[in-house]
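User: Can you help me understand a structure? I only have the sequence.
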Amino acid sequence: MGPTGTAARTDTTPTTDTTPTTGTTPYVYRARVRWADQDPQGHVNNVAYLDYMQEARVDWILNGPYARMLSDGVLVVSHHIEYLAQSMFCPDPIIIRLWVTDLGGARFGVAYDIYQGDTHVARAKTILATYDVDGGRLRRMAPEEREWLRGYLGEPMDFRPLPRPAVEWVSGFGYEHPLRVRWSELDPYDHVNNVSYLTYLQEATIAMMEEPRRDLPWGHPGDPRTWVVAAQDMTYQVPMTYQIEPYLAEVVILRVGSTSVTFEMRIHDPHVDVTYAVGHLVLVHADPHGTPVPLPQILRDRLHPLTLT
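Assistant: Let's start by predicting it. Here is the structure, written out as tokens:
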């Protein structure tokens, strides 16, 4: 599981607003887009959204009556995010409306509607768990914490499920990519921050695609084709900590569609039989406007050896 950690707060005051999306009063946070948040295509990179979500979540908790939840411990169990439109570097902030779903004994969900201006750019959900940092285990929420969360309880957010393996796959089949944890990726709990796992998923899939896209024109100036992330998720199983030796990301292709490719990534320690996290990513082959276009047959042929069947 990946903890939330502490995020930088913007210089704007958070407000509340009524939206028909949830049937309750959500918490609204405005995140400023940084120049470094852009990808080579000039769009806000998909991983940056997880950072905005973390900023909003931490700001919400710190501005509530139980800010100690962060120091006591709140772990991220999973993320699921769908990307609906492109956002850009501009004066318009990223506006995040969040509310609570799936309120249980030690776990709760946080749903997000994410906008830039009037454009609905993404929707997402995080499952979190209250945690005893000193004891190293989950803890049940205190009654007062539950009552506070209940005040933000709104409608559930459901997603179209991402593909899952039709058959079990074993280590050694997929593409292997070493992952080095940076010291700056640790949070106040001395765990790798949850956002970094999406960076690892991005890094591993880009490395995996280097050979299949060899001699193809993607990324060259003037080429009309591009790749966009349509959806991704991450389930955190065991906290990762800093170590000098690299971890191992193993990636397989679950599905090659007419315009998209779906990946699954598992993060291991090559010396220990532990899976730290499992993530999925749907990559769409698109034109400059983000409209899906068919995958060329040469690429489909090259992806076949790494596709789970």
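Now, to help you interpret it: The helical segments are 46-62, 68-72, 143-150, 194-209, 297-303. Confidence is low (pLDDT under 50) at residues 1-22. Let me know which part you'd like to focus on.
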